[in-house]
Structures are given as C-alpha cells and as structure tokens.
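Here's what a typical entry looks like (NAD(P)H dehydrogenase (quinone)):
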Amino acid sequence: MAYEFERTQRIAVLGGGPGGYEAALAGAQLGAEVTLVEREGVGGSAVLTDVVPSKTLIATAEATNGIGEAADLGVQFFTRSESGRAVRPEVTVNLAAVNARLMRLARQQSEDMKSQLIKAGVRIVQGEGRLDGPQRLVVSTGRGAAGTDFDEIDADTVVLSVGARPRILDTAVPDGERILTWTQLYTLQQIPEHLIVVGSGVTGAEFASAYTALGSQVTLISSRDQVLPGEDADAARVIEDVFKRNGMEVLSKSRAASVTRTEDGVIATLSDGRTVEGSHCLLAVGSIPNTAGIGLEEAGVQLTDSGHIRVNRVARTSMPSIYAAGDCSDFLPLASVASMQGRTAVFHAMGDGVTPIELRNVTSNIFTQPEIATVGWTQKQIEDGITQGEVYKLPLASNPRAKMMGIKDGFVKLFARTGSGTVIGGIIVAPHASELIMSVALAVEHRLTVDQLARAFSVYPSLTGSITDAARAMHIVN
C-alpha cells in the first residue's frame, strides 16, 4: 500500500528584524523549511542601529543622572588633592567609549540571534531580496565576479519584514557629521556641545533626554503645543517640566524650515524666521517604510498612501501567501509588536492555533527620564466618549519607596470600565516604568477587575504598591 506524504512547507522571510527573526524561528519550530534573507545582519535595524544601541545609550545616560542625583540621598563623591583637601570630582562621559560599547553589544546581539536561527535549522542568505510574484524571492547575493549572482527562493508562504528608515527633509540633508539621523549618532567621538533636536515625538524626546543627562546643551524644536504629541497630556506635561528643569530649551509651536551646516556647527531656521545655532543637529521627523522597489505592487500586495503594507490582525496582506511584520506594515511600529506579528503570521500560515493581535492590549514605553509606559484605552478616548471608563491618578510623591529613592516626578493612572470595574488601561510615569507596567498589562489582557488587581500582594515598600493602591481606591461596592 502506497502512502502519500504531505510536502514540507516552505517559508521565505525577507528581512531579519524582530518580525522576520521570530517568523523564521516559529516556522522552524513547526517543521517548515525556512530561508531568511537579510542584507545587513540578523536583527535588522532594530538591533544594529535603532533599539539596541539607543537604549544602551539611554542606560548610560541614566547612570550619569544617578550619579548627579546621589547627593540628594546623602552620597557625596570626593577626591583628594596633593595637599589632602577634599575636591568634588567632575563627572564626565567618554562618548567614544560609550558608542564603541553599544555597537559591540549590537553586533553581539545580532550574532546571538544568527546562532539561534542556525541552531533551529534556518537557512540564512545574505543579500538584497525582492518579490518575483506572490511565492518567490529573488536575491542578489553579490557573490559573483561582477556582483550579479542571484538566488531564487520558491516558497508556499512569504513573510516580509523589511523595516523602515529615517525620514529625510529636502531642506535638512544629513551629512553624518553635524546633521544626523538617529542611526548616525553612534559615530560621534565627543558629547555635542549644543545639540538641536528637530522633532519632539518618541525618538526626539528620548535622545533629547539622554543627551541632556550626558552633558549636552539641548534645544528641542517641537511643532506642537507640547512634547510627545498624541501621548497622555499629564505624562507629556511631566516630561516637559523635567526637561526644562534640567536645562533643556523647548521651543513649542515651532517648525524647522531648514537646517544647514556652518563652519563649525549648524544653524536651524524656523518657519517664522527665527534661527537656532548649535554644534550638531539630530533629525527625528519620522520614518519611511522600506517597501519601494521590492516587487510589492507587481505581486498584488496593497499599500497605504504612506507606502506601508496593509495587513490584518494575523499579519496577512491582500495576497493570501504573503504576510508582513514590523515597521513596514501599517500596524503599531514597535519591536514587540513586530515579533508577535512574525510568530502570528507563521502560525496562521501553517494552520496552527492563533489569536489575532489586539492592539489595545499592547504595552509601549518611552525611554525618557522618567519613562512613560502605557497599555489599553487612553484617558482621551474615555473623555471623547469612545469608551466608558473611570480614571484614577495617584502621584508617585505619595509612595514611600519613591520618597526613599528621591523620586519626585511621576504617577500611576488606572482606567476601569464604568460599572464592572474591569481594568481597561493604565499609564505609569516613573523610573523603569517599562518594568512596572507588566501587572497592568496582565490585568488588561485577562480582564481583571480593580478589586482583583488590588487583592494581589505588592511588596512594601515598592513602586508597584502605587498600582495596587490606585486599584484599591477604585473599589467597586457590591
């Protein structure tokens, strides 16, 4: 008796960022034949030039801040002069060493991810890839004498994870020396004397915060009424107050018309004619998906007006055999979301059990000092009547652990469904808010009530105590 065995499914992944990496691992885990195409290195820009290096830089900035604020806790640093007198030392940052370390960590993370893929049985092809129809990739490997060798990869399923790149202004062209995108900052050998940051969104605010802590004079140009437009108004107000208290100049309702290089620095001209002179300028004005010229339209993949790939909640595009994950898609541009999209895409393609991604359950974090972590519905959505909910805000200043640590800024804010008390969202503004938000995220994901959240034991004293205190204050009377 002859048996017919089903052929092993073939998965081709274009782009080795968080989404592509997780898609490849998931495919290998489910027994597929997986090929990953990446032009730079596994991890993509998230690991090599974006998330890993930027958050490593921010960790150094936090350490610098901690030393500067230690005196408030009674810790003082002195050295001895030749005469034996106590002299307060100057805290300095060796930016060349910092950048060398963070790029080394980025390469190490990339190599670790590559090793994991190889161990799982994933075939890795280095080169420039593009679609040749809905089930084929053509990869220019550059291995031939003329650099024109090609690999053709046929697949049952294609996962696109090609990422995005910094948006460039025609009137502010980066030169990699004085006018920089966030991917070019890591070549700097010295702390900028005066850094002009154009753009007060997440990227601009994070780098403005970090370089202020590292010792730069920083001018932040914001086209909106407040920094971090679109974020919780109370959180943005706290961050802007901290920025100004730390010596940052924030130019609100100001738009940069151009940035040009001078003999020994840069000059930013605003739309109202004012000028700002500095030593360096960081452009943080958004990003553009890397979707042009890779055969998407020819393969029948629908794009948005901005060039992002349209996907549904399981990361599937308009073509059944093609999925997309990460910043190239029209979903939320977060590394954690890209990873979840990559896994979800492959599970769905191979018929495994899958839960469609619910964006309202996604946690996000802004790595300023203090951090802003959010999950679920927002206060504005409640105030606009989009959903019904109650709001409770508890300043961190009342938290005993915060007092011990010298924390003066920040709060915990919870949102609960009117009537039932189900937790539908929350915001934490605090040091390491990215670690504190997890308990609120679990409450949102599993539809816990404020009473159920309050019954969890938080350590005393701890910053998480403010979460259970806020939940307790929202008690639903039965």
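Residues 95-120 form the longest helix (26 residues).

More examples are in the samples folder.
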